[in-house]
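// run 5 | inverse folding | seed 20
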C-alpha cells in the first residue's frame, strides 16, 4: 500500500498573500513543480498519511476545506483572508483519472491494461465504497472526493479564483503577475494515459510478453516506452474515457452533480471572457 501522493498540495504564501488549494487529480504535479518554492508552511502539507486523534487516518496532501478547518484553523482562515486559487476538471474524466490513481497505488496493473469489463468491475467497487459516510476523507478514496469540497465549506464558496486544468498556464501567468516572479511554463507532468483505440490494448500486452522474452528486461522497457507514445494518449476529457456501464455513469452524474454544474460555469466564463482565455 502506498502511504500517500508525492508533493505538497496546499501551498500558502504569506509573502504574497495567496493560497493554492490542490484538488486531487487536477494538475497537482504541474503546480507543485512551479509554485512549491513559494510555499511558506515549512512543508506542512507535504506527502504524509497520519492518524488524526478525531478524524482518523488522513492524507495530508489532500484536505477538503471542512477537514482543513478542523485540523488547521489558522490555515483555513488564510483561505478566507488571502486570494485563493484552484484548478478543476471535467468530473467524468476526473473519475477515470482517480480510478487510474487507485490502481497505481494499490494494484500491480495500471488502468490501460484492463479491458472495459475490468474497468466497470473496479469502478463498481469504488461506487460501493463511496456509499459510506466520509469515505472520501480516507487516504484510500480521497482522490474520489467531490471537487466542490475543496472550494465550498458550509455551502459558502471560499475559493473564488477557479481555472479549468486546460487553463493552468493562464493561472500561472496570473500568479507570476501577483508575485512578480517568473514561475516558468506549465505542462502536464503526470497524465493519465489511455489507449488510442481499444484494439491497441491486446497488441501492447502481446508485445510486452514477446518483448521480455526476446529483448530482455532492459531493452524491452525502452521499447515499451517508445511504443507507448504511439499507441497511447493522455486522458483529457469525457470523450476519451472507457465505456462505463449505465450504473456507473448514473452514479458519477448524481454523486458529482455540483461538480458538473461548477465546471460548466467555469468553462462558460472562459469561453466568454477573452481577457482570461
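// decoded
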Amino acid at each position: 500500500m502506498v502511504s500517500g501522493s508525492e508533493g505538497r498540495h496546499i501551498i500558502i504564501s504569506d509573502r504574497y498573500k495567496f493560497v493554492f488549494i490542490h484538488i486531487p487529480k487536477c494538475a497537482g504535479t504541474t503546480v507543485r513543480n512551479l509554485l512549491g518554492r513559494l510555499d511558506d508552511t515549512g512543508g506542512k502539507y507535504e506527502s504524509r498519511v497520519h492518524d488524526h486523534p478525531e478524524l482518523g487516518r488522513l492524507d495530508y496532501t489532500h484536505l477538503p476545506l471542512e477537514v482543513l478547518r478542523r485540523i488547521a484553523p489558522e490555515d483555513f482562515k488564510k483561505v478566507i483572508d488571502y486570494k485563493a486559487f484552484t484548478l478543476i476538471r471535467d468530473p467524468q474524466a476526473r473519475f477515470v483519472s482517480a480510478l487510474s490513481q487507485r490502481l497505481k497505488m494499490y494494484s500491480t496493473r495500471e488502468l490501460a491494461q484492463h479491458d472495459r469489463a475490468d474497468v466497470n468491475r473496479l469502478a463498481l467497487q469504488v461506487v460501493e465504497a463511496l456509499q459510506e459516510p466520509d469515505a472520501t476523507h480516507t487516504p484510500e478514496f480521497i482522490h474520489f472526493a467531490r471537487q466542490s469540497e475543496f472550494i465550498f465549506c458550509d455551502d459558502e464558496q471560499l475559493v473564488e479564483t477557479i481555472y479549468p486544468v486546460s487553463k493552468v498556464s493562464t493561472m500561472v501567468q496570473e500568479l507570476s503577475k501577483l508575485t512578480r516572479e517568473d514561475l516558468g511554463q506549465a505542462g502536464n507532468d503526470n497524465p493519465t494515459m489511455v489507449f488510442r483505440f481499444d484494439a491497441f490494448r491486446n497488441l501492447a500486452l502481446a508485445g510486452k510478453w514477446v518483448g521480455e522474452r526476446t529483448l530482455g528486461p532492459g531493452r524491452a522497457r525502452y521499447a515499451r516506452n517508445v511504443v507507448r507514445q504511439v499507441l497511447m494518449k493522455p486522458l483529457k476529457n469525457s470523450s476519451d474515457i472507457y465505456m462505463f456501464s449505465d450504473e456507473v455513469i448514473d452514479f458519477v452524474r448524481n454523486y458529482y452533480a455540483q461538480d458538473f454544474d461548477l465546471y460548466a460555469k467555469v468553462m462558460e466564463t472562459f469561453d466568454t471572457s477573452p481577457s482570461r482565455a
